[in-house]
Amino acid sequence: MNFLELAQTRRSLRTYLDKPVEKEKLEYALECARLAPSWKNMQCWRFIVIDDPAGRQSMAESMDDNNPGRKALMSAPIVIVLCAVIRESEVWEGKENMMLDAGLAMEHLILAATEQGLGTCWQGLFSEEKVRASLNVPEDVRVVAMTPLGYAAEERRPRPRRTMSEMVFHGKWGQA
Protein backbone atom coordinates (compact mmCIF):
# COMPACT_ATOMS: atom_id res chain seq x y z
CA MET A 1 0.00 0.00 0.00
CA ASN A 2 1.40 3.42 -0.87
CA PHE A 3 1.26 6.34 1.57
CA LEU A 4 -1.91 7.88 0.12
CA GLU A 5 -3.71 4.53 0.42
CA LEU A 6 -2.44 4.20 4.00
CA ALA A 7 -3.72 7.67 4.90
CA GLN A 8 -7.07 6.92 3.25
CA THR A 9 -7.37 3.58 5.11
CA ARG A 10 -6.66 4.84 8.65
CA ARG A 11 -9.73 5.25 10.85
CA SER A 12 -10.36 6.01 14.51
CA LEU A 13 -11.78 2.77 15.88
CA ARG A 14 -13.60 2.33 19.16
CA THR A 15 -14.27 -1.41 19.27
CA TYR A 16 -11.70 -4.17 18.99
CA LEU A 17 -11.64 -7.94 18.67
CA ASP A 18 -10.63 -10.07 21.62
CA LYS A 19 -7.49 -11.12 19.74
CA PRO A 20 -3.90 -10.55 20.88
CA VAL A 21 -1.58 -8.35 18.86
CA GLU A 22 1.51 -10.14 17.62
CA LYS A 23 4.73 -8.93 19.29
CA GLU A 24 6.30 -8.29 15.88
CA LYS A 25 3.48 -5.95 14.83
CA LEU A 26 3.67 -3.99 18.09
CA GLU A 27 7.45 -3.71 17.83
CA TYR A 28 7.18 -2.60 14.19
CA ALA A 29 4.77 0.22 15.11
CA LEU A 30 6.97 1.32 18.02
CA GLU A 31 10.08 1.25 15.81
CA CYS A 32 8.34 3.46 13.26
CA ALA A 33 7.41 5.87 16.08
CA ARG A 34 11.00 5.85 17.36
CA LEU A 35 12.19 7.07 13.95
CA ALA A 36 9.88 10.14 13.84
CA PRO A 37 11.49 13.55 13.27
CA SER A 38 11.85 16.00 16.15
CA TRP A 39 12.99 19.51 17.00
CA LYS A 40 16.81 19.49 17.05
CA ASN A 41 16.58 15.68 17.03
CA MET A 42 15.86 15.77 20.78
CA GLN A 43 13.37 12.87 20.62
CA CYS A 44 11.39 13.85 23.71
CA TRP A 45 8.71 11.17 23.42
CA ARG A 46 8.30 8.01 25.45
CA PHE A 47 5.68 5.28 25.14
CA ILE A 48 4.19 3.17 27.90
CA VAL A 49 2.69 -0.09 26.59
CA ILE A 50 -0.15 -1.45 28.73
CA ASP A 51 -1.33 -4.95 27.94
CA ASP A 52 -3.05 -6.09 31.13
CA PRO A 53 -6.76 -5.62 31.95
CA ALA A 54 -6.11 -3.76 35.22
CA GLY A 55 -3.84 -1.25 33.47
CA ARG A 56 -6.35 -0.68 30.66
CA GLN A 57 -9.10 -0.24 33.26
CA SER A 58 -6.99 2.36 35.04
CA MET A 59 -6.51 4.29 31.79
CA ALA A 60 -10.25 4.11 31.07
CA GLU A 61 -10.96 5.46 34.57
CA SER A 62 -8.91 8.56 33.72
CA MET A 63 -11.77 9.57 31.41
CA ASP A 64 -15.27 10.85 32.08
CA ASP A 65 -17.95 8.15 32.22
CA ASN A 66 -19.61 9.36 29.01
CA ASN A 67 -16.37 9.50 26.99
CA PRO A 68 -16.57 6.91 24.15
CA GLY A 69 -12.81 6.45 24.50
CA ARG A 70 -13.38 4.48 27.72
CA LYS A 71 -14.95 1.62 25.79
CA ALA A 72 -12.14 1.67 23.23
CA LEU A 73 -9.45 1.46 25.90
CA MET A 74 -11.18 -1.46 27.58
CA SER A 75 -11.91 -3.46 24.44
CA ALA A 76 -8.43 -3.30 22.87
CA PRO A 77 -5.74 -5.74 24.00
CA ILE A 78 -3.15 -2.94 24.25
CA VAL A 79 -3.19 0.71 25.27
CA ILE A 80 -0.21 2.86 24.38
CA VAL A 81 0.35 6.02 26.41
CA LEU A 82 2.39 8.81 24.83
CA CYS A 83 4.53 10.94 27.12
CA ALA A 84 6.94 13.82 26.46
CA VAL A 85 9.99 14.69 28.56
CA ILE A 86 9.82 18.48 28.96
CA ARG A 87 13.60 19.04 29.32
CA GLU A 88 14.18 17.16 26.04
CA SER A 89 12.48 19.83 23.96
CA GLU A 90 12.25 23.58 23.76
CA VAL A 91 9.77 26.39 23.37
CA TRP A 92 10.64 28.69 20.48
CA GLU A 93 8.66 31.85 19.72
CA GLY A 94 5.88 30.55 21.98
CA LYS A 95 5.66 27.21 20.18
CA GLU A 96 5.94 24.14 22.41
CA ASN A 97 7.90 21.83 20.15
CA MET A 98 7.39 18.98 22.64
CA MET A 99 3.73 18.65 21.64
CA LEU A 100 4.50 18.64 17.92
CA ASP A 101 7.35 16.16 18.33
CA ALA A 102 5.28 13.79 20.46
CA GLY A 103 2.41 14.11 17.99
CA LEU A 104 4.67 13.18 15.09
CA ALA A 105 5.84 10.08 16.94
CA MET A 106 2.24 9.08 17.72
CA GLU A 107 1.19 9.63 14.12
CA HIS A 108 4.05 7.41 12.95
CA LEU A 109 2.84 4.74 15.39
CA ILE A 110 -0.79 5.03 14.28
CA LEU A 111 0.04 4.85 10.58
CA ALA A 112 2.43 1.93 11.09
CA ALA A 113 -0.28 0.12 13.05
CA THR A 114 -2.71 0.71 10.17
CA GLU A 115 -0.17 -0.70 7.73
CA GLN A 116 0.04 -3.83 9.94
CA GLY A 117 -3.75 -4.28 9.84
CA LEU A 118 -4.30 -2.88 13.35
CA GLY A 119 -6.69 -0.22 14.57
CA THR A 120 -6.11 2.79 16.82
CA CYS A 121 -7.97 5.83 18.13
CA TRP A 122 -6.08 8.90 19.33
CA GLN A 123 -7.32 9.79 22.82
CA GLY A 124 -6.71 13.17 24.41
CA LEU A 125 -9.67 13.67 26.76
CA PHE A 126 -8.37 12.21 30.02
CA SER A 127 -7.11 13.34 33.40
CA GLU A 128 -3.36 13.69 33.03
CA GLU A 129 -2.96 13.57 36.80
CA LYS A 130 -4.84 10.27 37.09
CA VAL A 131 -2.72 8.72 34.33
CA ARG A 132 0.45 10.17 35.85
CA ALA A 133 -0.37 8.68 39.26
CA SER A 134 -1.42 5.31 37.86
CA LEU A 135 1.71 4.89 35.72
CA ASN A 136 4.24 6.58 38.03
CA VAL A 137 5.03 9.27 35.44
CA PRO A 138 7.43 11.91 36.86
CA GLU A 139 6.34 15.55 37.22
CA ASP A 140 8.79 16.73 34.55
CA VAL A 141 7.07 14.54 31.94
CA ARG A 142 3.77 15.36 30.24
CA VAL A 143 1.18 12.71 29.42
CA VAL A 144 0.20 13.84 25.93
CA ALA A 145 -2.15 11.22 24.49
CA MET A 146 -3.00 7.53 24.37
CA THR A 147 -4.41 5.07 21.90
CA PRO A 148 -5.96 1.63 22.05
CA LEU A 149 -4.24 -0.81 19.71
CA GLY A 150 -5.75 -3.98 18.33
CA TYR A 151 -7.72 -5.66 15.57
CA ALA A 152 -10.85 -3.80 14.49
CA ALA A 153 -14.24 -5.20 15.42
CA GLU A 154 -15.90 -2.58 13.24
CA GLU A 155 -15.56 -1.12 9.80
CA ARG A 156 -15.76 2.64 9.56
CA ARG A 157 -16.40 4.72 6.49
CA PRO A 158 -14.18 7.67 5.63
CA ARG A 159 -15.06 10.92 7.34
CA PRO A 160 -15.56 14.04 5.24
CA ARG A 161 -12.44 16.07 4.55
CA ARG A 162 -12.07 19.65 3.36
CA THR A 163 -11.16 20.15 -0.28
CA MET A 164 -7.62 20.99 -1.36
CA SER A 165 -8.74 24.50 -2.34
CA GLU A 166 -9.95 25.09 1.22
CA MET A 167 -6.65 24.00 2.75
CA VAL A 168 -3.86 24.84 0.32
CA PHE A 169 -2.92 28.39 -0.57
CA HIS A 170 -0.25 29.44 -3.07
CA GLY A 171 1.96 32.43 -2.40
CA LYS A 172 -0.28 34.07 0.22
CA TRP A 173 -3.15 33.22 2.54
CA GLY A 174 -6.39 32.67 0.66
CA GLN A 175 -4.87 32.39 -2.81
CA ALA A 176 -5.79 29.23 -4.70
Description:
With 176 residues, the chain is of the alpha+beta class. The protein contains 7 helices and 6 strands; from the N terminus they run H-H-E-H-H-E-E-E-H-E-H-E-H. A hairpin with a 2-residue loop joins strand 3 (91-92) and strand 4 (95-96). The longest helix is centred in the middle third of the chain and has 19 residues, at 97-115. The radius of gyration is 17 Å and the shape is globular.
Task: Write the topology of this structure.
Blueprint lengths: L2 H7 L13 H12 L10 E6 L2 H8 L8 H7 L2 E8 L5 E2 L2 E2 H19 L3 E2 L7 H8 L5 E10 L13 H4 L9
Antiparallel strand pairs: 1-2, 2-6, 3-4, 5-6
Helix pairs in contact: 2-5, 3-4
Q: How many strand segments?
A: 6
Number of helices: 7
Strand order of the largest sheet: 1-2-6-5
The outline comes out as: globular
Radius of gyration: 17 Å
Q: Indicate the percent of residues in helices.
A: 25-40%
Mean pLDDT: 94
Short structural description:
With 176 residues, the protein is of the alpha+beta class. The chain has seven helices and six strands; from the N terminus they run H-H-E-H-H-E-E-E-H-E-H-E-H.
List keywords for this structure.
globular, alpha+beta, 4-stranded antiparallel β-sheet, 176 residues, two-stranded antiparallel ribbon
